[in-house]
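Inputs:
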Amino acid sequence: MALSKKDVDHIAHLARLHLSDEEKERYRGQLSDILEHVSALNALDTKDVAPMSTVVGEGSRLREDVPGDAMPREDLLRNAPDSDSDQFRVPPVLD
Amino acid sequence: MSQLHELSLSQTLSGLEAGDFSSLELSSAYLKRIQTIDPQLKAFLHVDEDSLLKSAKAADKQRSSASKTKEKAPPLLGLPIAVKDVLALEGMPTTAGSRILEGFVPTYSATTVTRLKEAGAIFLGKTNTDEFAMGSSTENSAYFTTHNPWDFDRVPGGSSGGSAAAVAAALAPVALGTDTGGSVRQPASLCGLTGLKPSYGRSSRYGLIAFGSSLDVVGVLGHSAADLSPIFSIMAGFDPLDATTSSQPVPQINLSEQPKIKGLKIGVPSEYFIDGVNSEVEAAVRTAIQELEQLGAEIIEISLPHTEYALPVYYIIGPAEASANLARFDGVRYGLRVEDDDLIEMFKRTRGEGFGPEVTRRIMIGTYALSAGYYEAYYGKAQKVRTLIRQDFEKAFEQVDVIAGPSTPTTAFRIGQHSDDPLEMYLQDVFTLPANLAGIPGISLPVGFDKKGLTIGMQLFAPHFEEERLLQASHAFQLATDWHARRPEL
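Outputs:
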């Protein structure tokens, strides 16, 4: 399955990736090759096969909803590229 | 007496316990090797000498006070180990081999790391990895490529290539790795080590920087099954911080000096001996299987008919899960930010610059496979075929106790040999990733060399939670052979 330039633009936007035109063209080729490879799965009839949705299969585990110790805010903010008092700082979301 | 870095793990631990040498002497010996060899080998991304020596001194002090009060010291007290850089270690930089996490210092440790630390282990440093564990050679690390200690022109395998090279070159006695599609077993095979990927759900993923959450497992690399057993027993087990860990108890594995593999039924799948498997690899693995037969095992030809579909299934499910997991790297909470006045543009520029080509490729494949209109055709289909692959193993294990085959189709390849063609590189994992899809444990152990002097690995699989069976069978083989005792000349 060959991807178009428009497909690649759309995927890059969904994935929030800024790519140069040259990168987009390179990925278009490589991703098309990979999709071609994975299309081998279409040879299998899976009409009556259930999807594998869990690996261990011990079911969901519930616990009491009680507050635990949180990591100190100042420690976590130390890794942030930009922060202001006790919050992460980002470019304006609304004009 | 051998030099400290030449001792096996059990010799090292008993030497520490008997007071033959201190943790400070042991740690200094490994540090010296790192300083001498690692500038060329490039196994480590980060070594914190001061913190290591401080921990070593503290361990020695703890041991001497324990001996005064006749208390039993923790089992790994003062043992220096290496940790793959996708596992969080509090206070030590953790980059996952990516520019996007440059400078990140976690405020917590992975559960596996914490358990080893509580058992007394101390940390030599963080080892190189393909970026976010995506790769089979360490060539996708944003920092540098690690060399294979057996031939510096070749890759050590990946993604846990830094851990494998460090142990093979005796810069660390054992090292933690992670395995999403073969990232412990393939580098173990390419570096002449024994590498265990436990069952999915056996070792906690808390603090493991997520790649494919239904596939990721923390594993361990060492010279022998005997080296791996105590590390595995300590790090594994239920963790309330990872809801997918199993509550099944983890056995304390005591490897027998006369292991009973008489009557052990070993399945040999025809699908693992196909064109594309190097003839020297096939010959060495077949010889190893005969060795097991001579030790009393029964060899049975089996079939895992959906093996050829494992690679396409993996290259949908792995990227799909990765595209969701890596959404968190957005320049807000940690790591790199490339500034822009617009929030969405800031995300895009940060991620565009921060991720390398292989990670970008997988994010894009995964995003596409999960996007509106394609989900059922790709992800849905892959999850169904994944069921068929798991059923292949379930059926096989009705008939046999373990399954044996080559770990990788070839021995270590040259640096740069596969870097232009992603699909060519993906074939490295063709025999390891079925275990990740099925969730079962796997081990790779050294079984010989090719004519170039490169190591060959054999892989064993067992049913879910039967790691002990893998370790016992490997141990039986290693008592009868000495491939695991060979060391590269450095």
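Remarks. The first helix of chain B runs from residue 9 to 18. The two ends of chain B are 20 Å apart (CA to CA).
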